[in-house]
Write a structure and sequence with these properties.
Layout lengths: L1 H13 L3 H25 L14 H22 L3 H21 L6 H17 L4 H17 L5 H21 L6
Helix pairs in contact: 1-2, 1-4, 1-5, 2-3, 3-4, 4-7, 5-6, 5-7
C-alpha cells in the first residue's frame, strides 16, 4: 500500500501522463509482488505472505525483479517525468541490492519501503507531511520488531537503505519537489 501511495504521489505531481504511469507502475511494483507472495504461500513455497524465512525469498526476488524490469520498461515508454524515470531505476536497483543482502542478512523490506515512502510522499507535496509520514514509518518498524518478524538491526538496515534510495531519487532527479 505504501509503494502504491508513493508511486501515485510521485506521478501525480511530476508527470502529465500520471494515469498511465501509475497504472503500470503500481501493478508491476506493488500488485504483482503482493500476488507473488500470496501465491507462494498458497503453494507452500513460503511459510507466510511476509516470507519471513529469508531462504524462501530467492524465488520471490527473482519473480519480482522480472516484474519490476518489465514494469519499468513499460513505464518508461509513457512517462514524461525525470522523477518517475529515476524511481524505475531505483526500484530495479533495490530489488538487486536487497536480493544480494538477503544472501547473508534478512533486511526488512517493510522498513525500507516505509522509510522511502515517508520521504518521497512528503517531498512530493510538502515537507510538513513528514509530520504524518514519519510516524507511519516509525509504526511500521516498531510493529516488525514487536511482532518478532525482524530484529532491530534488520529494521535499521532496511530503514537506512530506504533513506539512501530516497536521497538518490531526490537529488538524482533534480531539485527536490517540495
Amino acid at each position: 500500500m505504501l509503494i502504491a501511495a508513493m508511486l501515485v504521489s510521485l506521478a501525480v505531481v511530476t508527470d502529465p501522463n500520471w494515469p498511465a504511469t501509475t497504472a503500470i507502475s503500481v501493478i508491476a511494483f506493488a500488485v504483482v509482488p503482493q500476488a507473488v507472495a500470496v501465491v507462494m504461500t498458497m503453494r507452500g513455497r513460503a511459510t507466510d505472505k511476509f516470507i519471513v524465512n529469508r531462504h524462501q525469498r530467492h524465488l520471490f526476488y527473482g519473480i519480482v525483479l522480472v516484474s519490476t524490469v518489465l514494469g519499468a520498461l513499460a513505464t518508461l515508454l509513457v512517462t514524461q517525468s525525470a522523477w518517475v524515470t529515476w524511481a524505475c531505476f531505483i526500484a530495479i536497483s533495490l530489488i538487486v541490492v536487497v536480493a544480494g543482502i538477503n544472501a547473508f542478512f534478512k533486511i526488512s523490506l517493510h522498513a525500507l519501503i516505509s522509510a522511502l515512502a515517508a520521504v518521497v510522499i512528503a517531498s512530493a507535496f510538502s515537507w510538513w507531511l513528514l509530520l504524518l509520514t514519519a510516524p507511519v514509518w516509525a509504526l511500521v518498524i516498531w510493529s516488525r520488531v514487536y511482532l518478532v518478524q525482524h530484529s532491530r538491526s534488520e529494521v535499521i538496515a532496511g530503514s537506512a537503505l530506504g533513506l539512501l534510495a530516497a536521497i538518490v531519487l531526490l537529488f538524482g532527479a533534480g531539485v527536490p519537489m517540495a
